[in-house]
Fold each of these.
Amino acid sequence: MKRSSDELLYNSIKWFLYPEKRDSVSFDDYTSEDIEKTIKTAKGHVVAPFIFDAFTQSALKEKVNETYLKELTYTTKQTVIQSYRLIFLTKYVCGLLKENGIDTVVLKGIAAAREYPEMLYRKSGDVDLYLLEKSKEKEAVEVMKNAGFLFFEEDQKENHQTVLVSRDGIKIELHTMITEPFSDKRANERIALFEESIKDYAGNVNIWGSDFPVLQRGAFAFTLLLHALQHFMRAGFGIKLLCDMAALFENGLNDKEKETYLYLINDCLLTGFSKVILSVCVYYLGIDKDKVPHELCEIEKCDAFLEDVLKAEEFGRNDVNRMAVVSGNGLWGYFKEFHHQMKLSFPKASKVFIIIPVLWVITLVRFLINNKKVRKTTAAEIFKNAGERSKMARELEIFER
Amino acid sequence: MNNKLKNYEIHDVAGTHFLVNVSQRGDVFEKPLEINEFGAYVCKYLKDGKSSDEIAKILSEEYEAEYDEVLKDVNDFLNVLNEKIV
């Protein structure tokens, strides 16, 4: 069902993303209720700064309640100041590691923000760096610890990143994998091959007189897609990730970048997922369809997908029943996903075959306790939600040969 | 002051003028300074190499105000700026 407040959100984002297309966006028919809902949704998806320009510069400004406007202005300014902090911290950490012979590329962060008309509006909370040589992970951690960054054992939960914290509390994640492993073995193998060749795609972008290491835009678009998929396969992701893709593709990929992107999505069996994401960007976020390097999918599929994104808010935190998407069919599919989640929780221990049943039990007990105490929902609700979202995943032909 | 401002840029974002040290290392964060429109003009002219007298002359014409009053405002702003920026 199309809601006028959602439409207002998309139009306000378009106003921000494409200043040259502002004449085609109308804000005439929206009510104060639409405005209120739009601000709330934008905040939930951490894209409030993206609607700031439309709400303060277009005909909308006459309709916005002063309190909301003050709140929106405050949120936007806070995001801008935080962005400055993260940009300079990124510059420092990349420089520090580089001086010590450790090459990185920025994942998301400034690499995504630079595609926007105002990069300071993209909200981010930490710095994500990918180590071009995985073998230098320990060395990188030592360099950072010596420079005063803090290392807490309890932060090291996932198996593809090391987390350090700056003295003012900002997390720096050093990644050795672009994404956590998926349940599809072939896709994981192809992504591992991409990681092996990632140096070939590394370059620099100059911002305010300083160089930042980033990936070539075709390869970068692929990493954004993987990031979106990683969240989609868990609890989902919000509008911000769609905006990242829209901003990047609207700026246009050159022929080489398009070729890289098409090769990578095809190789990793993600063409269907790319189609739905970029189609949503065309139909709802207004990117030029000629800038999409493949065909679009039907609008009905996009509607269902966008509804899932809207419900998710940032990384699915708005829906306690979301945990994962099951890629296979029936009970076997659920079991496979359960086994995969166990492996993600116990990456080292799960390699010891004999203790796997114990790890299954621990995973199950944790799952049940978390449902009751943290998520305050039931396993049945979670299975129901996983079933519905898994059906959508199958329609998107994710990892299908 | 001109030399001090060499590493600074004025960014107009979110309806605000920020004076930003774009050359900062990043280990210790030098927070951008929020300045008003008058301050943004003063910084811009300073970066263009103008003296406080010249700036006061330009701004007194721009704001249709008394030269002496504007010069005082310019100097007050520069004193504050001198304390705030590295």
Amino acid sequence: MEYDKEKKEIRTTKILNELDKFTIEFIDIAKKFVDYVIVSGYVAILLGRTRASEDVDLLIPQMKKETFVDLWEKLKSEGFECLNTTNIDGAFSMLDEHAIRFAKGLPIPNIEFKIIKTDLDKHALDNKLKVILDDYFLYVSPIELQIACKLYLGSQKDLEDAKHLHDIFKDKINKGELLDFIKELDVKDRFDLMEEYGDTYRFRDVG
Amino acid sequence: METRTDLEMLDDEFKKKNFMERLSFVKYWARYVKNHDDKLWSKGQKKLIDGQFDMAKRFYEGDSEKESKRLIRIMKEFQINKRSMRKSS
């Protein structure tokens, strides 16, 4: 994996799994209608974390009703359906209050569609990274913000995701920016714990 | 359901040790990803993730097959009962 900080690009030649393919298929449709950034667990998974997820979180800016309707119809024609409701108006209103989910065939995996609300959400979208996978690309949250947010969410799984991203990219990320986010979210103790605990046991090199 | 990782939770020695071991392995895996070709580590990731979705798919499909068989059994029993009621009347 190559991370070009100047271009805000990560290049990978990874073999795509079913979750990657599902996400690419959805984004391929959605990006024609709305700007987006992928946040949360799937960012770590896309970049090598060894776990699955039943959903992929997408942040989008506020949409006009007409654009949402066009997106809805296109998603429907490609086999995607909203898990919250079959009513377009209902789904559009729900977006003001909470995320709505789209799936294809089975309920998992699904895409969680959320409107940007906070300054950190906006920062994620405005400073997104392009992850290039052979013929496709996806936009994800900046790594520094993603690590801090994962620490904030705070479950063991989230700390593991944060640790994975931190260790993969620690030579490339902006340490000052990371510490700023850590301070803003008040998660310095979790960051220290993550670093301390990750150094406890050793494993031998294989492959 | 996972809860927040409060430092107090980690007073439980077993949980603490388990978490330390897990984080150490995450560190090891991150190093592996950094030091090996993307096509190599992603093979393992693909097996893990695709395997989980395959299991989920079979679960859903298995349930609908089970339900169809149950309905067919109920219909057959209904037909048998209908015939015996006609005979007795």
Amino acid sequence: MRSGSLIFGVLLSALVVIAAGLSFLWVPFDITQLSIPDKLQTPNKLHWLGTDHFGRDILSMVMIGARTSLAVALLAVGIGFFIGVPLGLVAATRKNSIIDEVIMRTNDLIFAFPSLVIAILITALFGAGAMNAIIAIGIFNIPVFARVSRGAALSLWQKEFILAARVSGKSDLRISAEHIFPNIANLLIVQGTIQFSLGILAEAGLSYVGLGTQPPIPSWGRMLADAQTMVSFAPHLAIIPGTAIIITVLGLNLLGDGLRDLLDPRVRKSRE
Amino acid sequence: MLRYILKRAISLIISLCLASIIIFAVVEIAPGDPASFMLGINAQEDTIAALRAELGLDQDKLSRYFTWVTGMIQGDFGTSYTYRSPVAEMVTERIWVSLPLALYALLISTLIAFPAGIYAATQRGKSGDLVVMGATQFGIAIPNFWFAMILVVIFALKLRWFSAGGFVEWENGIFKSMKSLTLPAIALALPQASILSRVMRSALIETLSEDYIRTARAKGFGKRAVIWRHALRNALIPVLTIIGLQFSFLMAGAIIIEQVFFLPGLGRLVFQAITQRDLIVVESVVMLLVFAVITVNFIVDVTYAVADPRLRRRV
């Protein structure tokens, strides 16, 4: 059953990734062409998912929107990963030192900030747009990765193979890079998947309030914001982008859960 | 014990100081001068300068920071640039929307999560468990503002049971006010309920595998009695932690839901203040929210230390 959730997660995520990738090469209709006579069509043979208030093909917009969502969330995870993991590893090598204290307390501090409010603050003050959204979401990924990698690294430092590496004269930095990091990579991939799905939701939220990706680039959150006033007579405008978000987040979460079960034998055993 | 509390209190104060510095700095380095923003693009240089002086923006950053912090300690949060009214007053007004909304959402989330989580734990591995866990996966994946829109379409526009937005003031009766908060609270509660159900389930499953549970079963207690009398109480610790965290999240996280329903809460206040460059309001409300989160965490930590001596040693 558990591998079932992994397969389902892979399928859903693959669907979104393929849609996003395909949009670079081909979309059913050109979304820069407005066609008012074709506006607000419900799903039909020509426009599989209908058209919006400008007569743009919704399937094409959802496909390009997938690209935007994935890119923003992935880059935000990248920020968290590339800053957070080294910080966590350094904190683990110097356990209970000043550096460890500073890194971990800064983490706690960032956790205390209401992330959505700060993301809105950053994007509103420094300008709405995908780049600032990436930074705003990414900042809150840093403490997550730092904490996970520190926790996992700390237990590894007690292991004999690390002791052996130390005896052979390797520096802490080298041990972290060559022995600790590969051993916590599984855990980081799982965490990355979770943060990725949270990033998709955050990007949608920011775009919904007008602070994320800016028009004319389509984004799912923006499509939902546009749909809001028309939802009573054209519900498909809201249902379709919303479903796209749900499929993506659900897929990534199932993928993360499945991977965790697959990669962590203890979880697998306890579930049996 | 006292040493532990003292240590935590010092780190609480340091965190608050750092938070105030960060918030002040972020707002300071952001482009856009509130005075020229308020007066528009055609304003004269000297008018802008006069307004800057009036708002105290001409003083140096350090003295402005200290004025802000010392003011806050004394309960004076400054005066809003846009509305020319005390920020403390505006916050007090809004908190009577945000606080009940957060509590309402928390209540709904707990009422869903407890039975769902307990049921899933007792049915572990069976179809009932799979259904509940599948539903929670969906609950986590649904963006709450989208769910809010769907709720509005069904319950406000089609069935006309609730209004599509706005808040009925408390003077008009508690029932009416709570009714206007119902759809927003449900929208906010859905993802929280899903997370809480999962926490409840795994905490209960973990406690059920403890030795004392086996002992209780061996002594002849029924499965139900063991869950209610022994397991549930012990499983509550992680659940309460999450509820604590969710409360602060709900206070701050309602910002988008408040936008969807046009609710005059704290989130909407911050949002409007940000777009109007009403920086003093932004700084103070964000600081207040951070203060709430840090203090709630502090209280939770200290309560645990009092209740569970094992936790004290870990720090």
Amino acid sequence: MKASMSWLRDYVAIDLPLGELARKLTMAGAEATVIQIGGDRWQGVVIGRIAAIDLHPNADRLRLVTVDLGTQQPTVVCGAPNLRLGDKIAFAHTGAELIDGYSGQRAVLKPARIRGVTSSGMVCSEKELGISDSHEGIMVLSADAPLGQPLADFLGDTVLDLEVTPNRPDLLSVIGVAREVAALTGQSVSVAEVSYPEAGPLVAEEVAVEIADPDLCPRYCASLISGIKIGDSPGWLKERLTACGMRPINNIVDVTNYVMLEYGQPLHGFDYDKIRDKKIIVRRAGEGEVLVSLDGVERSLNREMLVIADSRRMIAIAGVMGGANSEVSRDTTSILLESASFNPASIHYTSHGLGLTSEASMRFERAVRPELTLPALRRATQLMLELAGGQAAKGIIDVYPGQKERQPINLRTSRTNQILGMELTAEQIAATLSSLGFELQKAATDGDFRVMVPYWRSDISLEVDLIEEVARVVGYEAIPATMLSSSMPRQDPAPILGLKKEVRQGLAGFGFQEVITYSLTSRELLEKVVTAHPLKPAPLHLANAMTADQEYLRTSLRGNLLSALAANIRHEDGAIRLFELGRVYLPRDNALPDEVEMLCGLLAASGGEKSWNASSETIDFFAVKGVVESLLAHLYIAGSYIEAGDSGLRPGWQAAVIVNGDKIGVIGELHSKVAEAFEILRPVYLFEVSLAALLPHALDCRPFQPIARFPAVVRDIALVVDSRVSHQQVMGIIRSFALVGKVTLFDVYTGRQVPPGKKSMAYRISFQSKDHTLTDEQADKILKEILDRLAGELGASLRA
Amino acid sequence: MSAIQQLEELKTTALAELDEIADLRRLASWRVRYLGKKSRLTGILRGLAGLSLEEKKAVGAAANKLKLTLEEGFEQWQQALRDKRVLASTEKEGIDISLPGRFQPAGRLHPVTQVTAEINDIFISMGFEVVEGPEVELDYYNFEALNIPREHPARDTMATLWVDHGTDGGQQPMLLRTHTSPMQIRVMEKVPPPLRIVVPGKVYRYEATDATHIPMFYQIEGLAVDKGITMADLKGTLYEFARRFFGEDRRVRFRCDYFPFVEPGAEMAIECAVCRGSGCRLCGSSGWIEILGAGMVHPWVLERVNIDPEIYSGFAFGMGIERIPMLRYGVDDIRLFYGSDLRFLRQF
């Protein structure tokens, strides 16, 4: 909401510096900035009159305009369509700083040759002067603008620009802002009495109003003015509208806009002669009923939308926009002026359903009080009579099915202080609320009040609403800052939070960079990471996705992570380690989806990075397996690995990660088809772990293990086994023996020195007892038993 | 040759040999040769038993003396050799210590993860518990229960992404939560007061992407409900957070603002770090940067979860997270956080 200072000063005395006033308004809820219209920015711009319009010798669409500035008469080239002889205009001398109509940038005006004619200076549009975005034609000033005077002296004003929150439609009006200013600065608001002669016939005999849907229209008021003359509004009115960001149109439309800005009540003027049978019906639209609105667009409505109709057809979309069929035109002589109140939700629905917002709908959807209709209507009627002549019919139409008696709200001083943490007295509270126009009566209990809400406030219905009013006028600065003093509530942090923290820290320690990617993705990307189709589970789809690449909720972290890798490979020649810990969204029937915390990591081999001492770091399946092993060890979890069949990974080069019999994840080399789809040429290894599946295993509280006090006996063995025998099988047997401590595989060999189809595996086994020193003999005895079992179950022999 | 003579001779050769020794390994074998179990000296000492008492006395004394001499010589020579070695090693030509070291790959956590953890920790120290909630929500929790019914203008400020899948046969619309506030309801439904929680997490908006807008970002919600909680407690808690997070010298502003689910409502801003309050481009010339919305939990919200607003009161706040590293590190494009560019992420 823009409110010009000169207009505000009609209602309230302002003696504060403007910066301070803006600060007070901001602190009290409506962020305010001070905008200077004109002033220094219009240096070199003066008022001129169009003295002659001649054709340009070399261009059909350009004109040579001679401007009378009183003392000089420069001629400039101008292409505006609305040039009219005798109009007062804003003329910029060369050297003036204007806003370029096309680029929007500020630039100093220079002399120019346009199609062979020199042009020194310019006739300005509103956009060039920074008044509005209008650049279709030049700005026409009122006829009383003094010739040759600086434009700033005539039009300059200061405007308060307020960001009004949705609960305060009353601040979408100059009087509302004046009331706020008055309350915050200790002033009072004076609104002049409205009176006008009612010389015409009885209004009720000229028009009938029926509200068919009172739930959507609690009140409908109207006045009738006949014999008016459509014309331009006077300069003062145009300038106020312009300063508030609205474009003047004609005296009738301008009055409705002016009073809307003044009172916050939207009004609409119908051409009375276009209303069939002089009957107004406020009703729901028929399904698919069509109306051309004032902006010339054909609108198809539905049964949930409220319209204003005459006896035969719709003539306006209630509270949103008038219809072209009843529009005020140059020939209009009688005006039916509407000032009504509509259901805010209904207006919001209609306006959003039609994609049509207006100054009126914006106010109505924020709830305009029905009490406001009458004063605004009277003010507008008075102003129209003043500016367009004619006579007003006797009386006013006032159909008010939604009338409710206003109920007082109880307010307790004790409660106010209890909520705010302040120590205000009943007198302070009363004074504060009174300054805002609330009426207070003392209640039976000392310090309690019965408070009547002023009719222009639609946002106050509870005691806390009043408490906020008190706080904002006293000032939030006055609220003390205290720390919570009650005892600390019991805490049961979810175990997953701790697990996520440990996993993140562990992986960062292993050299992995965390990334976070969008949870929204495309089906294409989800399908790209697997080689088996169709995609399972089917991802959740958005009903109103912004873009095709953010249409689905991800069911896997892989796609986004591989995209991230592919993008980074272009500028990273070293090995790349990435991980993401985030949710995937698995649909469920008739329920919110299962949001599973997943971990996915990628390990990409170096792209040929060179270094003087590059350690020959191998990135292969065992590197990624090592990461998962280390991560599990970091979490005190032991995992095992079995062959897996993940369609996104290379067959035979992948494993499922098993913890205590549960599959918690998978590791492996990226399937070449997947790598190809992402145009990744380096070998990539992937791990994926479900934290939800891992969580139950991470909870164990492991008892302390005493440190071994007796020396270990170490034996090395080299086994020859069938090449299909796995390390896991060998380890299973070795580990099953008591007194076996650390076991390390230190060599795997296939080649000339072992028979074909066989391999050699060398292990170092240490034997250790908790309670005595083992002898060589004891160790050898166990070793023999181990070898016997390895021979019996796996066909292993000792390598000669 | 008498035993005494033998000892004399032994002493001469042993010490002469010792003088020649230049390394510790040979010194060790010298020790074995002259002082070991099988050395001549040990042999002489063992042979004492067969000697007369007088001889035994003389030879024994001489042999023990020689043993001491040799042991002393050994110790001294060993020390000398060690010193010499240290000296030699320090005199040797040095290395080019400016050559790059062998780099350990170091990963980092995402800046949003880091800042979230930092914020969490401050609130944990004030007795708040971290909880998380669903990102796919029901209309009821995201809007209705927070006093934002259908057709409420506040919905327009939170453009919503709707999920193409309803529960209850489509009666309950499903959406991507537009703020972390639905967890206020979910937690209060389950946990009776007193409670203090913070809820970090992703939120979503139907918004075109540019340098300051993205469709997914992080928020952190705070909620405290108990008997006697006041607006002053809210202000104190938020000021303490701002003091610890942004530093003692950053001014803080607490002003009235509107959110349908709190009353009274408030907004907190901190002094712009660039212009220190005098107004610049970053803060839109106001000198302040808004960082969070807050207020006292609306009585209707409490009633909806069966908490009596006459007995209990509470405060709530919500803050965008990306804003904070943007202000702290001068990041001017929010898209960088989710672009996964290592050149960006490695800087945090």
